[in-house]
Amino acid sequence: MENPIYISLSRQTALQRQMEMVANNIANMNTTAYKNQRMLFQEYVDRPAIGEKISLVQDYNTTRELREGPIQATNNPLDVALQGDGYFTVETMSGPRYTRAGHFRLNNDSELVDGNGLPVMGENDLRLQIPQNARTIDIKGDGTIIADNVQVGRIKVVRFEREQFMKETAGGLYVTDEQPLDAPDTKMAQGMLEQSNVQPVLEMTSMIEIMRQYQSNQKMMEAEHERQRTAISKLGRVSQA
Amino acid sequence: MRSLSIGATGMLAQQLNVETISNNIANATTTGFKRQRAEFQDLLYQNMRRVGSTSSDAGTVVPSGVQVGAGVRPSAVYRINEQGSVNPTENPLDIAIKGNGYFQIQLPSGETAYTRSGNFMVNAQGEVVTGNGYAVQPNIVVPAEAVDVTINASGEVLVKLQGQVTPANVGQIQLANFANPAGLEAVGDNLLMETPASGNPITANPGQPGFGSIMQYALENSNVNIVSEITNLITAQRAYEMNSKVIRSTDEMMQTVNQLR
Question: Which residues of B touch A164 (CB under 8 A)?
Fold first, then answer.
């Protein structure tokens, strides 16, 4: 008897989570290398009684749009944008993490670190140390770092077979169990940063859509509520007569 | 409804962005000022359905789970140490650094501060000081009877005295450099302080490998590009508005719930 309410409820719960996702996309529209997220829904069929079948909705998947974000010039010599698919590798206490946010700087040991202070890995998983007195730091398209005309190392770029399997952790970092592959075709651009690929207009429209769908579900629940109330009062009257 | 707080993190982040941009614009004509940029990061993610978990007895794996983020946070406001353009002036003690390095300034507290702003003056004792009267390190004293002061590219201060043919060397301007100049802490008055993140100062004469050279009769302008700051300001303001729309929509959704009888 209450099944219509539960069907609406399943939709509303899913919509609430979708709203949270859209809110997160909009909040991160200026976050370096942030990837827009989408939610996928599926039908979930339940059989509460024999011969009865109700179809609920379930949000079963979030996917990242892997499209490259626009490149913005910052003119900071240690800002590096990736062109093409691929990730930088950073070293953490709990193993390698991958990121596309190339906002690098030097730590007090003159090592190249990312925005969180995690060391950026070069080839052969070596940290990249820049000579302390380097006057100029050039980062070539293939990631070779040249400080005062001396090559000091190469920033490692890796790619993955199944990028959607990568899990977001905070701070623009991703984690995966997959083995990294070489990414020879990915180029680096110095003095640039990859912006987020969130398209604010689309997010605003989907936000309006979510809100209206939420309201129409509410209407349905109200109608169902009304139906139940009418049924109870009418049935009650028949029994009295 | 987490989208309320997610929208709030977005508004806070954009507020910081606008503050950074307005400080850049306010300092567009400040000597030796380096523009700043606010950098953002996504906050923690909550796993609703974990990626890689098995979805059946047969061992099939969920290709990507449901992960909902918790918003955004500012990760850094960093200085972009790009060389500013150099403006010619008429003052012999206006000096600009072309390349890396900072002038060392002795604060009244005894600490050393660092600056790119080279608009120096002479105090009553003939010492070369900043506009606030703080002495440049190492100390340079220009004699009162000097007719002309020349500062060459390698930082030697030469004064021509009345009746003398060869100019006398009265001091040497030294520059300090850091492994990570972006890690210096700004304390106002164009001054920067050493921090554990910046590393220790390495001092040398101007023109040495890794250090810039000195230009007399010149001042380094700020490296703020007004046009790009204004466009950034527009983006930041619109982003702020959109985040406030998120909060309003969430509010309306909650209002809808409250109308349920």
Answer: 63-64
What angle is formed at CA B179 by the lines to CA A144 and CA B17, rounded to 5 degrees?
85
Same domain (yes/no): B180, B238 = no
Q: Which residues in chain A are closer than 8 Å to B246, comparing Cβ atoms?
A: 22-23, 26-27, 207
Span B79-104, pLDDT tens digits: 888 899 999 999 999 999 998 899 99
Domain check: are B93 and B118 in the same one?
yes
Question: 3-class SS at A79?
Answer: strand
Question: Are residues B108 and B61 located together in one domain of the fold?
Answer: no
Domain boundaries, position B161:
86-220
CA gap A162, A176 in Å, rounded? 10
B212 in the same domain as B117: yes
pTM: 0.81
| DSSP assignment of B161-223 | ETT-SSPEEEEE--EEE-S-GGGPEEEETTEEE--TTT---EEE-TTSTTS-EEEESEEEPP-
Chain A residues in contact with B63 by the CB 8 A cut-off are 61, 162, 164-165
Q: What is the per-residue pLDDT across A181-211, written as a single tens digit (0 to 9) for each?
A: 998 889 999 989 999 999 999 999 999 999 9
Same domain membership, residue B212 and residue B136: yes
Judged by DSSP in three states, A212 sits in helix
Task: Please state the domain count of chain B.
Answer: 2
Strands A157-159 and A87-92: antiparallel
**A133 in contact with chain B, both atoms CB, cutoff 8 A:** yes
Q: Do B94 and B74 belong together in one domain?
A: no
Say if residue B107 is in the same domain as residue B43: no
DSSP state of A123: G
- The mean per-residue pLDDT over the stretch A37-66 comes to 84
The 3-state DSSP class for residue B64 equals coil
Of the given ranges (A71-80, B51-60, B97-106, B186-195), which has the lowest mean pLDDT? B51-60
B212: closest CA among B241, B261, B173, B244? B173
pLDDT score at B199 = 78
Q: Are residues B117 and B209 in the same domain?
A: yes
Helix residue ranges, H only, B43-84: none
